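User: Show me a protein chain along with its predicted structure.
Assistant: Here is one chain, sequence first, then structure tokens.
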Amino acid sequence: MDKLKQIEAFVSVVDKGSLAAAALEEQVTPVMMGRRIDALEKRLGTKLMHRTTRHLTLTEQGSVFLDHCRKLLEQMDTAEKSVAEGRHKATGHLVVSTPAAYGRLHVAPHAPTFLAAHPEVQISFNLTDRVVDLVREGYDLGIRIGGAIEPSFVAVRLASNRRVVCAAPDYLHRHGIPRTLDDLARHNCLAFNLQGGQQRGWYFQQNGKPVIIKVQGKLDCNDGELLHRWASEGLGLAWRSTWEIQAQLASGELVTVLDDYALPHYDIMAVYPQQRHLPAKTRFFIDYLKDVYAQPDYWNRARSPARTA
């Protein structure tokens, strides 16, 4: 028999003054209520109450045990309310991993407004281009851009995004516009080096299939913002996400090339471990970011730090 049921029955019988009254409250028979009390006394090895048809009297041990039971049930009730509240009210510490440049530009700047609406939340950001293990490293939420999502995780699309080749008009005027993927071999391609983790090349689709093109150039680094800056300064072609360059595309400071070969989907996703009940702090933050990104002309207004210096 469930220990908690026995304790609840004991407290209920004392509070109601009889087995019959407690049984009526619990919608069970008095016999069943009596069995719970008997089982509790047998498990404890002591008599908790003296029962007659008209009176119920606690023993000395029963009085001491009753105090402990009341405190236990109060603590359980508080714990349950706290968990239930966490599903409907954003509270607690939210730990978020996001790509470095994206987090600086499109996630962290929106945190103050979210916190103003949810003052019982604390947010910690880890801005890194490393794909972190959300479960092992203790993250509530990860922001991912493109790539495969593990089956044990849930992915929520925050915004559309593409990965495109871009350059400043001045560079294209001086070096020509690449028309095919083979033309990349004749251009100065600004790419991540080995330390940047993009050593395999740039990803495209050709004839409906994904292809990887290894590129070369006179400049490479492990920092996406620097590659963006170099492209903006007319130093070469860069393979960038539209979330980073959309404002410059709208203004004409950068233009895209090889659009027919661009990957169709490289979307921005919120990723979290599968769980039965997603905490409100996580769910509300995801919904908040979706609303921010859905604002009219948001991506055209958001300026990259690469152009602020």
